[in-house]
Amino acid sequence: MPEIKDILLGNQKAGARMIRLIENNDRCAFDLLKKLYPHSGNAFIIGITGSPGVGKSTLIDAMITEFRKRDFKVAVIAVDPTSPFSGGAILGDRLRMQRHAADKKVFIRSMASRGQKGGLSRATKDTAIVLDAMGYDIIIIETVGAGQAEFDISFCAHSIGIVSIPGTGDGIQAVKAGILEIGDIFIVNKSDRPDAEAAVLELEMMLEMRSTQGQISNPSPGWTPLVQKTIAPKGTGIKELVDTFLSHFDFMKKKDLIEPKKKDLERLYFNSLLKDLTLDKLMLFMESSEEYRNVLQKIKSSSMDPLNAAEIMVNKIIRF
Amino acid sequence: MPEIKDILLGNQKAGARMIRLIENNDRCAFDLLKKLYPHSGNAFIIGITGSPGVGKSTLIDAMITEFRKRDFKVAVIAVDPTSPFSGGAILGDRLRMQRHAADKKVFIRSMASRGQKGGLSRATKDTAIVLDAMGYDIIIIETVGAGQAEFDISFCAHSIGIVSIPGTGDGIQAVKAGILEIGDIFIVNKSDRPDAEAAVLELEMMLEMRSTQGQISNPSPGWTPLVQKTIAPKGTGIKELVDTFLSHFDFMKKKDLIEPKKKDLERLYFNSLLKDLTLDKLMLFMESSEEYRNVLQKIKSSSMDPLNAAEIMVNKIIRF
Fold this sequence. Notes:
Radius of gyration of chain A: 22 Å
Oligomer: homodimer
């Protein structure tokens, strides 16, 4: 069992142990998390999302280096199953990441996208709270796509960067997938490819439409979403990208958007916890209640049908 | 509100109205369903699954014709969003289906795969109960793939047909997707294509491995899964396919497998209902409880954090 004080001191072993408890949906995790929660709320949480192959991991790798130059402590949660952080990609990528391994102010953690007992979305949110309480200034969450059924990044992050590459028509896809609505910063990676300018223009045009049509809500009211070109392996545009993320955070602070955002995220977190804890309790009931076993027996012997049985059972379990 | 007696008489308008209530997760639906349930359990439920483009709908269309020749009443639930039954495919397909429209002993219903308030799986299962109680002898459920997150056909059907086409390496895919484990009958459609024999052989080889290795459970113990060739638009192999499905049903009856299967499905249905009704209740609580609104307010004013709030709330709601 990890010690709260070790986690708060930023001890990476204690942090890793805590995150493992979260992933196993261990009952202790919740109690520890309650103690950590009041110490969270200081980190700047960045979501980086985009299709597989756009180079998110290399980009994040370069961003880590840039943030470290400025002496920020950086943590990464890779929810993307194809991420080399998650062990999903080729060895070369994995080795490249290793260069941060010796840096005690960098912490990289991958989330298995399957088999999270308590749900991926909750495990990620909970892990972000731990990393936040550990004192990381910047937490980067890497996901494939946004708005996917299992995980919605806008549930966790202050600032969302959408990564695309030229020549894939990703812009149109972004509109379709509703990704355009949640992005604060749009990153055209691999911008040494021929169609880079066209990709930037296309995105800017669509963002223009977003701001003038007003149909699509702006995640940070008053903030004009920016399109930024990068070539991640060469480090091109990374300094500017990090500047932009930090200025977005500054913007939110100056416009008093951090607190409403925090409250909004807390409401969503509360609602999802309510659902998760309810299902946890139901699971516990099914595993341990004699009443439940009796009803199963009645269904088996046809003295009760599943509909009536479920209704009776639920009315017994739920006080509302 | 549909009348129970009209549904039991097989009135299609009443049935359609009932299914609409199910899709809207209307509270009345559950009460009506409880009354219909004792009248269900007579139909033979067939699941037809396979990737988009393998011709499932054309196959089902031909199967309907064959079942009608033998004077069976047939109902189809299309869960596949790309199915022409669901309006997802080209006009030609849709028109072709129309030929059963005048036949009062055929009932075709599509399930929207999005926006099912109570979940797609539950809506499909509930709809099958309605069609069963309406007196349809055969209920065919069409889905894309099995074991998909949102819907598991083996949760509903007595007999499962897996459709593939030659030359797509679907066999290997089937193993990967775990589809091989749940199939009772394997249908190689479009079998006038060059690689048809190879596709049949590949499937038979893999089924051989399934039976000898014993690692994969057989959904109908003692039943040797068959591979059947069809050319759906020409009707080739359809008579034999229908024969095979009916003999699988006979086999299950003779071996007393129907009752254990029914009990198994009932247990699964009960468990999923328990979960669904619990979440329904939670939703109702969140919509109408003043206590819930008070807690939201406390989170907003920072006098309570989301973790503690959720725990207190859940302990109040759940009696267990």
